[in-house]
Amino acid sequence: MLRLRLAFAQPAVLVIPMVATGLFVPSIAFSQENPPAAAQDAPAEEETAKAFIVPEGKDPEVLQSFLNQLMRTPAQERTRSGFRDHLTKLHDLSQEVFQRDVDDETNLLAISVMSGSLEFLEQFGDQTAGERKIALINSLKASKRPALAARGRMLEIQTEITGLDLNDKAAVKTMIGRVNQYLQEQPLTLDHGRIAYGAFSALEQLGEPELIASAAQTFAKPLRASDDPTLKGLADTLEGSARRLTLKGNAPKIAGPTVSGEDFNIEQWKGKVVIVDFWATWCGPCIEELPNLKALYDTHHAHGLEIVGVSLDDSRPQLEAFLKDRKLPWPTVFIDPEGKEGWENPLATYYGISSIPTMFLVGRDGKVVATELYGDALSDMVAELVAKPAP
Question: What is the helix (H) or strand (E) element at residue 264, kind and residue range?
Answer without folding.
Answer: strand 263-265
